[in-house]
């Protein structure tokens, strides 16, 4: 039986975990290696680790942490954040990431997606997309949601898949940080445009939101702020989903 | 024990080395030439397509020594592309090592790759089946799967669009279409059962 993926997201800056609220307000809180290991040990099905690796120093700090995390993680790990070059991709994969996630640079240089897919396989090429509702469509944004692009969502997803994207991480900027539920209309729209796996991101605030998304055909859910307060845990979410008849992986 | 991980530039080996360390085995990377001295078992990993895999093994002078290890019945665990390499040929013209009769067709599923967690129905009576008291779930990433000519080598099956062979075994040769090194506690149990039942 195919089982959904429940995927905690770690936002990391300068070697520390931060939590994101509406993208721009960030608050410091924790050791990313410890937190990643904790999530894995308590039933996370996969992890997304978002860091900023733009400078040589940032990249070195991130790879050192990922080497440490890899030793302790027995689930898949996706790393992304500010990746601009094939050299950075290679460094992160060598450090132990199973996949890399690329957002802004994929928009600026779609050939990078093709190059990663060609050299390392499309299975490790996650294209992250931030989009926001505009009148009758969804528009793609870059630079952490700060800059509007000319891309309509469906057109960009198709282009990225043609370039070799093996998976998508799709964040609804409208839902992100609200804890009011996933953006199901946007996700359903996106699924019509891609054949690759899609991770739903933005809006998870309760087990009801997870159940609703899974019952609407989503099969990979990113969790961010819902886990940051500490009163919601992955075992808690999974046992409640299971109780409600939604199959989940229960790794005991 | 010592495990030699075949390193032929077809994928990431960090998670495999970490898994070996977690079960107390010493991992060595087998990059060229003969089987590293002291090796108890071999992991044949790999991601991607069969098209390049055998030529990469040959280019690194690994194909011959690997064949020798197989003939000497050194326990070999093929993972993902590694189990596909056990077979004769794939679609799109790729060739495997031909140790087992069969092919590697594309998965007949609406959405590929098959990426994520899925359960495996293990056949009773194999060295792996007693390790689990229910159907275990493992992490998969693949678009092709093996189709053995001899159904008795199928040790486990999984449903995704179709039913396919997800665990293969014959003697000291065992293969998993999934990634036990990325499959949490149950992945570790799978590896430990392989070590107990096939290596030891």
Question: Overview of this structure, please?
Answer:
The complex is a heterodimer of chains A (252) and B (200). Chain A is globular, with a radius of gyration of 17 Å. In chain A, strands 2, 3, 4, 5, 6, 7, 8, 9, 10, 11, 12 and 13 form a 12-stranded mixed β-sheet that branches. Chain A is of the alpha/beta class and 252 residues long. Chain A contains 10 helices and 13 strands. In chain A, strand 2 and strand 3 form a beta hairpin. Chain B has one domain: Rossmann fold, CATH 3.40.50. Chain B is 24% helix and 30% strand. In chain B, the strands form 3 sheets. An 8-stranded mixed β-sheet of chain B has the order 2-1-3-4-13-12-11-8. Chain B has a 3-stranded mixed β-sheet with strand order 5-6-10, with no helix packed on it. The longest helix of chain B has 16 residues. The model of chain B has no long low-confidence stretch (mean pLDDT 93). At the A-B interface, strand 1, helix 2 and helix 3 of A face helix 1, strand 7, strand 9 and helix 5 of B. Strand 1 of chain A pairs antiparallel with strand 7 of chain B.
| Overall geometry of chain A | globular
What structural class should be given to the helix and strand makeup of chain A?
alpha/beta
Number of domains of chain B: 1
Number of helices of chain A: 10
CATH domain topology of chain B: Rossmann fold
CATH architecture of chain B: 3-Layer(aba) Sandwich
Order of helices and strands of chain A: EEEEHEHEHEHHEEEHEHEHEHH
Report the end-to-end length of chain A measured between terminal Cα atoms: 17 Å
Low-confidence spans of chain B: pLDDT under 50, at least 5 residues?
A: none
Write the layout of secondary structure elements.
The complex is a heterodimer of chains A (252) and B (200).
Chain A: E1 2-3, E2 5-13, E3 16-21, E4 25-28, H1 32-41, E5 47-50, H2 56-72, E6 77-80, H3 86-95, E7 99-102, H4 104-108, H5 110-120, E8 125-134, E9 137-142, E10 147-152, H6 153-163, E11 167-172, H7 184-191, E12 198-201, H8 207-215, E13 220-223, H9 225-228, H10 234-243
Parallel strand pairs in A: 2-5, 2-13, 5-6, 6-7, 7-8, 8-11, 11-12
Antiparallel strand pairs in A: 2-3, 3-4, 8-9, 9-10
Chain B: E1 2-6, H1 14-22, E2 26-30, E3 41-44, H2 50-59, H3 63-71, E4 76-79, H4 81-85, E5 89-90, E6 102-104, E7 114-119, E8 121-122, E9 137-142, E10 147-148, E11 154-160, E12 162-170, E13 173-176, H5 184-199
Parallel strand pairs in B: 1-2, 1-3, 3-4, 4-13, 5-6
Antiparallel strand pairs in B: 6-10, 7-9, 8-11, 11-12, 12-13
């Amino acid at each position: 039986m195919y089982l959904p993926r429940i995927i905690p997201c770690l936002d990391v800056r300068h070697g520390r975990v931060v939590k994101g609220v509406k993208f721009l307000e960030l608050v410091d809180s924790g050791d990313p290696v410890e937190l990643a290991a904790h999530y894995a040990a308590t039933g996370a099905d996969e992890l997304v680790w978002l860091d900023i690796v733009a400078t040589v120093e940032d990249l070195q700090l991130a790879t050192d942490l990922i080497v440490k995390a890899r030793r302790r993680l027995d689930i898949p790990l996706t790393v992304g954040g500010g990746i601009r070059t094939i050299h950075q991709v290679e460094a992160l994969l060598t450090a132990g990431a199973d996949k890399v996630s690329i957002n802004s640079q994929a928009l600026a240089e779609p050939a990078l997606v093709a190059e990663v897919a060609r050299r390392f396989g499309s299975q490790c090429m996650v294209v992250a997309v931030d989009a926001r509702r505009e009148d009758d469509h969804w528009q793609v944004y870059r630079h952490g949601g700060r800059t509007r692009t000319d891309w309509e969502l469906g057109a960009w997803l198709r282009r990225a898949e043609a370039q070799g994207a093996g998976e998508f991480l799709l964040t609804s900027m409208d839902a992100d940080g609200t804890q009011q539920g996933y953006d199901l209309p946007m996700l359903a729209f996106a699924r019509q445009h891609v054949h690759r796996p899609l991770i739903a991101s933005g809006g998870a605030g309760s087990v009801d939101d997870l159940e609703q998304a899974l019952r609407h055909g989503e099969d990979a859910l990113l969790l961010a702020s819902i886990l940051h307060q500490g009163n919601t845990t992955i075992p808690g979410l999974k046992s409640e989903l299971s109780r409600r008849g939604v199959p989940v992986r229960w790794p005991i | 024990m010592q495990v030699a991980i075949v390193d032929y530039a077809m994928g990431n080996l960090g998670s495999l080395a970490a898994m070996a360390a977690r079960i107390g085995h010493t991992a060595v990377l087998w990059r060229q030439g003969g089987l590293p001295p002291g090796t108890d078992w071999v992991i044949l990993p790999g991601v991607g397509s069969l098209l390049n895999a055998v030529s990469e093994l040959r280019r690194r002078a690994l194909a011959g020594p690997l064949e020798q290890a197989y003939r000497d019945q050194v326990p070999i665990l093929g993972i993902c592309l590694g189990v596909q390499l056990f077979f004769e040929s794939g679609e799109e013209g790729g060739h495997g090592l031909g140790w087992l009769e069969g092919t590697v067709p594309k998965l007949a599923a609406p959405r590929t790759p098959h990426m994520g967690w899925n359960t495996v129905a293990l056949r009773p009576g194999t060295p792996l089946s007693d390790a689990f008291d229910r159907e275990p779930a493992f992490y998969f990433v693949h678009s092709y799967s093996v189709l053995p000519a001899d159904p008795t080598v199928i040790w486990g099956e999984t449903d995704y669009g179709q039913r396919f062979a997800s665990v293969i075994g014959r003697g000291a040769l065992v293969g998993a279409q999934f990634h036990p090194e990325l499959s949490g506690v149950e992945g570790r149990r799978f590896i430990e059962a392989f070590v107990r039942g096939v290596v030891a």
